[in-house]
Design brief:
The protein is of the alpha/beta class. The chain has helices at about 125-130, 140-145, 150-155, 165-180, 195-205, 240-255, 260-265, 265-275, 295-300, 325-340, 340-350, 355-385, 420-425, 435-455, 495-510; strands at about 5-10, 10-15, 15-20, 25-30, 55, 65, 80-85, 90-95, 100-105, 135, 185-195, 215-220, 240, 285, 310-315, 390-395, 405, 410, 475-480, 485-490.
Length: about 500
């Protein structure tokens, strides 16, 4: 081991590695909690155990046991090692131990059922070179992270179950608070950030009293949980009683007679045999403890953790989603998700916008992503003492011609869901595409905005186009589109009003 790259924290000594020029050190696979296995499966994370001697921290640890992404997925970078023993994190830092640099904690996306903190597009070196400490984490996913069940709730001193993956994220933030100074990070200047389900996680953490004081700024990229409680996958949280019913059905489906049987079942078997219908997907829930109330209500009342927020979404969030088979099928799915009256209103608002292929994908992206982040931004701007900054990412990356990604032709994807990530991390090279100078300039600009916000709560800085804070009643956002970076109106404003009406009706219906 290279003993010249060492950090000693409360649990022991870590041996990492340096970048080629020695400017950035990385430490990988660091346990922030005990392995959630055996009797600790479906329980809140427990503090990590100390180790003896030096621990090799030069390689990523396994991600949570999970469903595999399709090989053509934009999120697929090859198979990673998987394990139920997955509560680890990774740190990149160019700081001396005596320094106190701002800290950036990243929560990966993947629909709460797949993903990891070790994908090449999350590599933290470029951001660490800009003067921050970067942390990426793994957390429990799918049934291992979000199973709720009446028997689990009876075990809990709080009378709740599920949300174990969110509790993992909170445990990681507690680890950062207690240990990041050893890497030159400032535990009093922590920004949480995530994309998709990671952004929904940030939205939840910003509303959770359990996370209060563990972070000081928040960034959400393409994801939130602002919809009225109801159907998982539409930016909506479920209520505890509903997810407990899902857990009971899943137990029957798996042929387990008791929690003991479920805890004895191999993790990969649970993931492989879990019911595949959409209403059986494990999901974060409103349990009265981790999540006290629906997030829309928390932010409307100004009861969230009051920190500066930067949030936004992309121009064609739904482009990687399958199109509806017919107009009739689209209308039927809207009735199922939102009720007859709302379905009619939504269908009428979108029907004249073009071909079914484009309309159905745009509709999905705008409700699941664009409306979530826009609603988060404007509610926070209205009720917070701190500033809110909103963006729309419009750049179309240079996807290879003639390729298919997530079942869609590359020329039909536009500014797709996840498109902004390599620009933010400065990891364009993680994809062997024909990046242009405009892409590299945009990445430099976005890294500067993000690092400024992480450092001060304000993305603005020398040489950058001015990004005004969002003011209640003034719906201007920053449009990020190659060399065309300018303030403009929120995207799809007419559709956002339709979703406002739909969600207000659903909230009123209870």
């Amino acid at each position: 081991m290279d003993e010249s790259v060492e950090v000693t924290i409360g649990d022991g000594t870590l041996v990492g590695e340096s970048s080629a020029d020695g400017a950035v050190r990385s430490f990988k696979g660091i346990p922030y909690a005990q392995p959630p296995v055996g009797a600790l499966r479906w329980r809140p994370p427990q503090p990590a155990q100390p180790w003896f001697g030096r621990r090799d921290a030069r390689s990523f640890a396994p991600c949570c046991t999970q469903e595999e992404r399709p090989a053509d997925s934009l999120g697929h970078f090859g198979r990673e090692p998987q394990s139920e023993d997955c509560l680890t994190l990774n740190v990149w830092s160019g700081a001396r131990a005596s320094e106190r640099r701002p800290v950036f904690v990243w929560f990966h996306g993947g629909g709460f059922f797949c993903g990891s903190g070790s994908l090449p597009i999350f590599e933290g070196t470029a951001l660490a070179r800009r003067g921050i400490v970067v942390v990426t984490i793994n957390y429990r996913l799918g049934a291992l992270g979000f199973l709720a069940h009446p028997d689990l709730s009876r075990e809990s001193e709080h009378g709740v179950s599920g949300n174990y993956g969110i509790l993992d994220q909170i445990a990681a933030l507690q680890w950062v608070r207690d240990n990041i100074a050893g890497f030159g990070g400032d535990p009093q200047a922590v920004t949480i950030c995530g994309q998709s389900a990671g952004s929904s996680s940030v939205n939840i953490l910003t509303a959770s009293p359990l996370a209060r004081g563990l972070f000081h700024r928040a960034i959400g990229e393409s994801g939130g949980s602002m919809s009225a409680p109801g159907r998982p996958g539409n930016g909506s949280l479920l209520r505890l009683a509903d997810v407990e019913k899902i857990g009971v059905r899943a137990q029957d489906h798996l042929g387990a007679r008791s929690l003991a049987d479920l805890r004895a079942m191999p993790a990969d078997e649970i993931v492989r045999r879990w019911p595949t219908d959409s209403m059986s997907r494990p999901w974060p829930n409103i349990d009265g403890w981790v999540v006290p109330r629906p997030l829309y209500d928390i932010f409307s009342d100004g009861a969230q953790n009051d920190v500066a927020v930067l949030t936004g979404a992309n121009g064609f969030e739904g482009s990687t989603r399958p199109a509806a088979a017919s107009w009739e099928a689209l209308q039927g799915s809207l009735v199922t998700d939102f009720g007859t009256e709302n379905a009619r209103m939504i269908f009428d608002a979108y029907r004249g916008d073009g071909e079914l292929y484009d309309v159905s994908r745009a509709l999905a992206g705008q409700t699941i992503f664009n409306w979530q982040n826009w609603t988060w931004a404007r509610l926070h701007a209205r009720t917070s003492r701190h500033r809110t900054f909103a963006y729309n990412f419009l750049k179309v990356p240079p996807l290879p011609a003639g390729r298919t990604f997530d079942g869609q032709p590359s020329d039909k994807l536009g500014s797709y869901h996840t498109a902004e990530i390599p620009y933010v991390f400065g990891t364009l090279a993680a994809r062997p595409w024909a990046w242009r100078d405009a892409d590299r300039r945009l990445s430099e600009t976005m890294m500067a905005y993000w690092v400024n916000f992480i450092s001060t709560g304000d993305p603005n800085g020398a040489g950058l186009p001015q990004w005004p804070a969002l003011i209640a009643g003034a719906p201007s956002v920053l449009h990020l589109d190659g060399d065309e970076i300018a303030v403009g109106p929120v995207l799809f404003a007419d559709k956002m009003s339709v979703w406002d009406t739909c969600m207000a009706r659903l909230r009123a219906a209870g």
